[in-house]
Amino acid sequence: MDWDDARIFLAVYRGGTLRAAAAALRVDQATVGRRLRALEQSLQARLFLHTPRGYVPTRAGELAMPAAEAMEHAADRLERLTQGTDESVSGTVRVTTSDTMGRGFLIRAIQQVRATHPQLRVVLTTSTLLSNLTRREADIAVRNVRPDNPDLISRRLSKPELGVYASKRYLKAHGEPRRGTAFEGHTVIAYQRAVFGARSETICGEAFGNAQVALEVNSGLMLLEAVAQGIGIAELPTYLGDATPGLERIWPDCGEFYDVWLVMHGDLHRSARVRALADAIVAVFEQAEEKPPPQRSRRPGRAGLSTS
Questions:
Q1: Sequence-ordered list of residues with C-beta below 8 angstroms from that of 26, at least 6 positions apart, any chain
Q2: Which of 49, 50, 149, 206 lies in the 20 to 30 Å Cα band around 245?
């Protein structure tokens, strides 16, 4: 089995269908099917059973998996090591982050680095999924989770704050919620449980079991847009909430902090193009830390409503 065949095998094994494998490899589905059949013929072994649930590995397929992954690890390491010696700030760098981090920080970093290095091409992926840096799904990741893989190096970029926000229109119609009431009588917007697990059941540590959940999202920018449109109350990073016209922070003393990490593979941090983008990302976060927070006016209290 050569590496090209191993890539096809691994994509089908992981994706479970020819379509998923083709999407992962960025080739057409017919090519995947043809290459898989040729591989099985060359090995004289059936690697998958085609079932209504997709492609299920046979015993031979299960046995082939560790060997194919070893080839993948070797190929990825070869690519990382050779790229690590590249001193040219040109070519492609893949970076992954959340959509809110992308909007708040990464776009500015990309703009700045390309002003100096116009031959650099950045592939930016925004997702709540953690990309696998060891398999070259990304060269750089900006995430709120510090990896425990010893092959990865990380640097803490900042410690943003989360706050409770609603639109001024919503507050005019419904008033502010009272602390300790689990948002009784109010409407909230939350992340889908699949995105943040149990944390999706609180807003800055305050449970919202007595509230009506109007919308569940899997995107930070959709959360921001829903709050801005007056759909309900939600938890937002202060760097977004404070900068969005028409939003008001509720309970300014109620906040939670989280770490943001820059992560890359140890073999790639010597690559000039990867290092250039990483340095630009660090600079943008440092600039944000030095910038004083905007002064926000507070709404006057209304009878019967908590303004604490």
A1: none
A2: 206
Q: Show the tokens assigned to 24.
A: 């992962």
In the chain, CATH 3.40.190.10 covers 91-151+260-290, 161-257
User: Considering only the top CATH level, what class is 91-151+260-290?
Assistant: alpha beta
Distances (CA, A) of 109 to 2, 159, 221, 273: 39, 18, 19, 13
Residue 97: its H or E element: strand 91-97
pLDDT (tens, 9 = 90+) of the chain, 308 residues, equals 677 788 889 999 999 999 999 888 888 888 898 889 888 888 888 999 988 888 999 998 898 898 888 887 777 666 655 554 455 677 889 999 999 999 999 999 999 999 999 999 999 998 877 666 666 678 899 998 888 888 788 899 999 999 999 999 999 999 999 999 999 999 999 988 776 655 568 898 889 999 999 999 989 999 999 999 999 999 999 999 999 999 999 999 888 999 999 998 877 667 888 889 999 999 999 988 876 555 554 444 333 333 22
Q: What is the 3-state secondary structure (H, E, C) of 175-196?
A: CCCCCCCCCCCCEEEEECHHHH
Could you give the CA distance from residue 64 to residue 58 in angstroms, rounded to a whole number? Answer: 10
CA distance 163 to 194: 21
Q: How far is 7 from 74, CA to CA, in rounded Å?
A: 12
Longest Cα separation, the chain = 80
3-state secondary structure of 106: helix
Q: CB within 8 A of 279, min separation 6: which ones?
A: 113
User: Within 13 Å and on the Cβ side, how many CA atoms surround 2?
Assistant: 4
161-257 classified as CATH 1.10.287.3510: no
